[in-house]
Write a structure and sequence with these properties.
By secondary structure, the chain is of the alpha/beta class. The protein has helices at about 40-55, 70-85, 100-115, 130-135, 150-160, 170-175, 175-190, 205-210; strands at about 15-20, 20-25, 30-35, 60-65, 90-95, 120-125, 200-205. It has one domain (about 25-215): 3-Layer(aba) Sandwich (Rossmann fold), CATH 3.40.50. It is built from 8 helices and 7 strands, in the order E-E-E-H-E-H-E-H-E-H-H-H-H-E-H. The strands form 2 sheets. The protein has a 5-stranded mixed sheet, with helices on both faces.
Length: about 220
């Protein structure tokens, strides 16, 4: 389904409108989520996209690039797409994996430099991978482990073998969402002042989820 351009009056709206002392949800702004992963991240965010768009048509647009060889190329692809649309927020989702330090950090710097009042760019990185965000649904973790060590830990918490291509991970993890947000926020505070490449472990996925939470 194609993205419908928003009305000009929509662009400046807050996510929650206060009326008579109560927070009344209004339509979400237009969001673009671009992910370099072709499996785990797309399945997770597509579930969120479908859930929100079922109530608020076309508000969330998800692009899967598979351009994992270069994190900066992901940013420039997202910017090109965003310039042809009317997005309030552009979320660039990527794992640090074994990418060079400068590539990992440059995406954040490019997002900061490119953000304007009308369109804000967000570097949604996970060091080392999005499975850290999954683990934070169950417990706080601050040990610098290799990403492969996350999988047996996840399997233990889930009660079954974790598979990267499981299409139901969002649904499975949803009951623990508040725990994940709390743990990820604490981890982010522990990483205060550090660049993405220095935040071991660390993740910014919670910032995207917090923004979308009123509509999930």
């Amino acid at each position: 389904m194609s993205l419908k351009p928003p009305k000009k009056s929509d662009l400046g709206k807050a996510w929650l409108s206060k009326r008579s002392g109560k927070n009344i949800p209004i339509y979400p702004e237009y969001h673009l989520i671009v992910t370099e992963g072709t499996e785990t991240e797309p399945l997770y965010f597509d579930a969120i996209k479908r859930r929100i768009n079922s109530k608020f048509s076309d508000r969330i647009n998800l692009k899967v690039t598979g351009r994992g060889e270069n994190t900066t190329s992901l940013f420039y692809y997202a910017k090109e797409v965003a310039e042809n649309g009317s997005y309030k927020h552009v979320w660039i989702v990527y794992d640090t994996d074994d990418f060079p330090k400068d590539k990992i950090d440059t995406v954040k710097l490019l997002c900061d430099e490119s953000s304007t009042k009308s369109c804000e760019y967000h570097a949604i990185w996970s060091n080392q991978c999005i499975e850290l965000w999954y683990l934070l649904h169950f417990s706080y973790m601050h040990s610098d482990l290799h990403r492969n060590d996350y999988f047996p830990k996840l399997s233990k918490h889930l009660g079954f073998k974790y598979q990267k291509d499981n299409p139901d991970m969002f649904k499975i993890l949803l009951p623990h969402l508040n725990t994940a947000l709390k743990n990820a926020t604490k981890l982010d505070q522990d990483n205060a002042g550090k660049m993405p490449s220095q935040s071991k472990p660390g993740t910014k996925v919670f910032e995207l989820i917090e923004r979308l939470k009123p509509y999930i």
